[in-house]
Amino acid sequence: MTCTDATVLAGRRILVVEDEYFIAQDLQMLLQEIGAEPVGPVPTLQQALDLAGRTPALDGAILDVNLGGEMVWPLVDLLRERGIRIVLATGYSDLVIPSPYADLPRCEKPTKSRDLLRHLGS
Q1: How many other C-beta atoms can be found within 10 angstroms of the C-beta atom of residue 25?
Q2: At 80, which CATH number?
Q3: What is the pLDDT of residue 111?
Q4: What is the pLDDT of residue 1?
Q5: pLDDT at residue 11 greater than cutoff 60
Q6: Residue partners of 111: CB distance under 8 A and separation at least 6
Q7: Which of 20, 54, 64, 80 has the smallest set of CB atoms within 10 Å of its CB?
């Protein structure tokens, strides 16, 4: 993705849910660099649910699938109900993702920034 393509996300609020500190910080910095507003990052499912619940205007979300042993599916359901674009950032293969979530874009860890941006900006 070129810088011009990344401007599609400028000004958009993107929820970042990731339990690995350095990956979370990288995602936050990436979003800031392209002019998006990161919401979070948060490392737990409960913190993510709380943050999503009190942040009405979200334009997208980057979600780690496994947050310290808790799966992110309740958050995915909440965000889907609100029509928020979701990208899964995970080391899990497509075969491990439950069928109700198989249609979600997935970027394997370590994620490539251009892949995340492409999925969020499309």
Answers
A1: 13
A2: 3.40.50.2300
A3: 67
A4: 37
A5: yes
A6: 23, 27, 89
A7: 54
